[in-house]
Amino acid sequence: MGAKLGYKSGIFKDFVSEKTRVSLACRSNDIMVNLNFSVPFRGLVHAGKKDSGCSFRGDGKLTYSLNVPHAACGTVHV
């Protein structure tokens, strides 16, 4: 089964697969990335380069959030 992307106002804000749901919320100073897993997650998530400020290692929970600052993690204003 393929992944589905949510599309609203020209911006993709949701990604859904069999094991993962990722949603994005653009805020004034950052982008909030919410990750929901159907099984305990024990992997590595990173935005941009594997910078410690833009990554985390899962410890077996099902839900995580990652704040990606607009001026860090390789983000580019377009």
From TrEMBL:
It comes from the Eukaryota. Residues 25-78 form the ZP domain. This is ZP domain-containing protein. The gene is NCL1_07297.
